[in-house]
Amino acid sequence: MDRLIQQETIFAQYEYSQESEFEKEIIAHSKAIFCANSLYIDVKKRISNDNIVTIPDGYLIDFSFETDPKLYIIENELVIHDPYKHIGQQLLKFAISYKASGRKIKAFLLEQVLKNKSNTKSVNEVLSKSGYRNIDDFLESLIFDKPVAAIVIIDEITSDLENVLNQLTMKTDIIEFQTFVNKNEKIHKFTPFQQEIRNISESLESKVKIEDLDTIVVPANEEGFNETFLGENCWYAIRISSSMLDRIKYIAAYQTAPISAITYYAEVAKIEKHANTNKYIVFFKQAAKKVNPIKKPENVKGIAPQSPRYTSFEKLNGAKTLSDIF
């Protein structure tokens, strides 16, 4: 089992045996997991369509993109559960029941928003920016005009889980949430939902606005870059937040050391799930185009992409260093 050490104190990974115990931790740390710019509703509500019944663990209204808020269902799960019979079936049942149960979902979400002043305030602050007349109009659009997505929070991501989620047509994000303990002390380890987008929204020095994100920058070593980015006109396997899938119009390659620069970009033709994973493959419309190297600036640490990062094509076009786009 994994261990964490803090000031010579060793924390051992805690194994959850009850989903209810795991869920309490998720609720307690929901703001840290999902960020303040979202509304987490932990109410369990029975959703049914004929003989199909499912009960999601909660709902998330995400305001990362203020003009395009999204609704997610939440599934809190343990790795000890069968990903095929338990997790996969739960999400499939909800996907089937969702539209037919839309009115019921809207009714109890409206109830949860209105009965909590903080929730009401959060939604009202976004309405004027997103163009909705009122909360009722907002929920109507959220449920009936946009496809619902899912977030699975689990104590360990496995290949079987990714394989199951890959079979679903519903867009799904995975968050691995682990707990480490030493006597009565706890440390939680997780990557916040949409961390790469969150970094931009929370940065006072960001060069790009959230709403303008349309380009993904991927790090590539020389061999992979030549064989795949240039040779196959595609790039894989990329972990992409579901909220970005319909926004990405361009992909750029950051060649790692010794080049340390963005050297090529391509217009995106389509994005598909890659193999039996919850990652994606990006196909290009045509061969990648060479650009004047957008170099890593000297004496600036932490700016070179170690994993996919987002920016706008407008910022990319004509940039001289990475500081101009991130």
Keywords for this entry:
30% helix; globular; alpha+beta; 326 residues; 17 strands; 2 domains; 7-stranded mixed beta sheet; ph1033 like fold; 31% strand
Summarize the structure.
With 326 residues, the chain is α+β, with helices and mostly antiparallel strands. It folds into 2 domains: 3-193, no CATH class; 197-324, ph1033 like fold (Roll), CATH 3.10.590. The chain contains 10 helices and 17 strands.
Give the number of domains: 2
Tally of helical segments:
10
Largest sheet: 8 strands, mixed
Helix content: 25-40%
Structure, explained:
This protein is α+β, with helices and mostly antiparallel strands. It has two domains: 3-193, no CATH class; 197-324, ph1033 like fold (Roll), CATH 3.10.590. It is 30% helix and 31% strand. The chain has helices at residues 19-28, 30-34, 83-97, 102-114, 117-130, 135-144, 159-167, 195-202, 222-230, 313-316, and strands at 3-6, 9-13, 38-41, 47-49, 52-54, 58-62, 70-77, 149-154, 172-182, 185-190, 215-220, 234-238, 250-255, 261-273, 280-284, 289-295, 309-311. Strands 1, 2, 3, 6, 7, 8, 9 and 10 form an eight-stranded mixed β-sheet that branches. Helix 3 packs parallel to helix 7 and helix 4 packs antiparallel against helix 6. The two termini are 37 Å apart. The mean pLDDT is 90.
Helix and strand layout, with pairings?
Elements: E1 3-6, E2 9-13, H1 19-28, H2 30-34, E3 38-41, E4 47-49, E5 52-54, E6 58-62, E7 70-77, H3 83-97, H4 102-114, H5 117-130, H6 135-144, E8 149-154, H7 159-167, E9 172-182, E10 185-190, H8 195-202, E11 215-220, H9 222-230, E12 234-238, E13 250-255, E14 261-273, E15 280-284, E16 289-295, E17 309-311, H10 313-316
Parallel strand pairs: 7-8, 8-9, 11-13
Antiparallel strand pairs: 1-2, 2-9, 3-6, 4-5, 6-7, 9-10, 11-17, 12-15, 13-14, 14-15, 14-16
